[in-house]
Amino acid sequence: MTASLTPPFVAPTELNARLAQAGHAAISAAGLCTLLPGELPELQALQPSWDDLPPDAYLRDGGHYRRRRHACFVVDGDTVTQAPHRAHWQPVEYNALHGGLERWFEPIAPQIVAQPVWVQLLRALSRTCSAVKGAQPWFVEAHQFRIDTTDGIGRPTPEGAHRDGVDFVAVILVNRTGVKGGETRVFEAAGPTGIRFTMTEAWTTLMLDDERVIHESTPIQPVTDGGHRDTLVITFRAGGFQGK
Fold first, then answer.
1. What DSSP character marks residue 122?
2. What is the number of domains present in the chain?
């Protein structure tokens, strides 16, 4: 595995090619703003909503370290339509810990999904998906996560290294305060190579081809009281949402 202290950022103009070539690509906050296009304060205006996430009631490891909200959309070209609220479901083949379980999370707040920058974000990342796998409607699930250190340790990916059973995954760091750890690891699904780095800059964005790579984030530990790590994870799937 190749170690990298900071993400191997590419320019927004190189994002599609790198994702197609390597199965993963990262852009900086400035790169994300260029991709949208948008301004950083517009993205930062979303951040306070992470302070209002309810506890995840479905953690099967007995932990109390995760809070989240969830919402679904269909993105077809420039048209972004919010889908009726639905359970999040994954097969056990992709999530051995929580697979096979209908998990009903509270929806992302209406005032967040109504923000123009939210729509711009879904459009921009969907364009990247279409550039790699062809233009088509994308069935999108968005997850707001807060991993805290209430239990002394927080696990961003309690299921371990995994795929999500979709076409693409975007992992966006929203905030990180008072913690250590949380290293991102990306491995070839059918090969020996991998890369690891730590996302520290808010709005750093990692795009993953879920058919080609597996990924995980290592546990976080507190450095100060109230330490936590906030992310926005967005998945893109062709043909429909995952379901039973």
1. H
2. 1
Cβ 90 vs Cβ 98: under 8 Å: yes
Token pair listed for 107: 């929806």
Q: Name which of 120, 192, 135, 133 is nearest 166 in CA terms.
A: 133
Q: 161 in a domain, yes or no? A: yes
Element at 74 (helix H, strand E): strand 66-76
**From CA 239, how far away is CA 244, in angstroms rounded?**
14
Instruction: Return the percentage of the chain with pLDDT > 90, whole number.
Output: 79
Angle at 235 between CA 233 and CA 237, to 5 degrees: 175
- Which residues, in sequence order, are bridge partners of residue 184? 197, 217
Q: What is the tens place of the pLDDT at every residue in 138-181?
A: 999 999 999 999 888 999 988 888 889 999 999 999 999 999 99
Q: For residues 110 and 19, what is the distance between their CA atoms, to the nearest angstrom?
A: 31
- Domain residues for the domain of 148 are 2-53+65-237
- CATH assignment at residue 95: 2.60.120.620
84-93, long-range: CB within 8 Å, 24+ apart, which pairs? 86/241, 86/243, 88/141, 88/143, 89/242, 89/243, 89/244, 90/164, 90/165, 90/242, 91/165, 91/242, 93/165
The dihedral through the CA atoms of 125, 128, 133, 136 has a sign that is: positive
pLDDT, tens digit (0-9, with 9 covering 90-100), for 174-221: 999 999 999 999 999 888 889 999 999 999 999 999 999 999 999 999
Q: Pick from 76, 73, 242, 216: which is nearest to 147 by CA?
A: 216
Q: Judging by DSSP bridges, how do beta strands 179-181 and 183-188 pair with one another?
A: unpaired
